[in-house]
Amino acid sequence: MRKLRLSLMLAISIGAGASAFSQSAAPTLDPAWKAPEVVEFIGLKKGDKVADIVAGRLTASLAQAVGPSGKVYAIETAEVVKSHPEALTHMKALASQSPNVTVSAEPVASALPPGLDAVFIRQNYHDLYDKFMGPADVPAFNRAVFAALKPGGVYVVLDHAATAGSGVGATDTLHRIDPARVKTDLLAAGFKLDAESSILANKADDHTKNVFDPSVRGHTDQFLFRFKKPN
């Protein structure tokens, strides 16, 4: 839980900094996050509707990408807010400066807003398998994402890579997940793998260290997948 707290504090600090975001002012982001490249990979356009699951570091960037005519649903799950109410406070601060951001804090099992063009979950897919999230019914969660997306909509997952073949064995201990497990999960939910990117890959990370270990923190090997709901 302490490590989760650290993870959330990082996301929250960015939310606080992004509270000054407006449609004409870009948030200040760590270049290592490669926010412009990630947003481009998602494929958002003006007017799109996107759900940001466990919203934080890139929420303001998503809001800029979809513009005033679009919508960002910043979803801080009730399970997260229970332990970290400040996450909700900072997202509400962002929303107060960004009319196209709507914040919610429903349980992770709740239905998502319908008619979405994209769903994005950044470094938190692995948390769905952990105790503090219930753990979540991950197949049901992925089916809910599928149901909320328009035909042709995309589900984008960015997370810390675990050792190949480890499945979900490192989600709580190292805060990592086997990329192959994510693919298996989402294909089972009816998605098609549309694209993957190595922009956040780091071959020097051997996947055996906790993501908060100083030797890899901020530079873990991360995978970025885009799945599509068939038309």
Structural features, described:
- The chain is of the alpha/beta class.
- The radius of gyration is 16 Å and the shape is globular.
- Helix 1 runs parallel beside helix 5.
- The chain has a single domain, classed as 3-Layer(aba) Sandwich (Rossmann fold), CATH 3.40.50.150.
- The longest helix has 16 residues.
- The N terminus is likely disordered.
- It has a 7-stranded mixed β-sheet.
- The relative contact order is 0.15.
- Helix content is 31%, strand content 20%.
- It contains 7 helices and 7 strands, in the order H-H-E-H-E-H-H-E-E-H-E-H-E-E.
Question: Strands, helices and their partners?
Answer:
Blueprint: H1 2-17, H2 35-42, E1 49-53, H3 59-66, E2 71-75, H4 78-83, H5 85-97, E3 101-104, E4 116-122, H6 138-148, E5 149-160, H7 179-188, E6 192-197, E7 222-228
Parallel strand pairs: 1-2, 1-4, 2-3, 4-5
Antiparallel strand pairs: 5-7, 6-7
Helix pairs in contact: 1-5
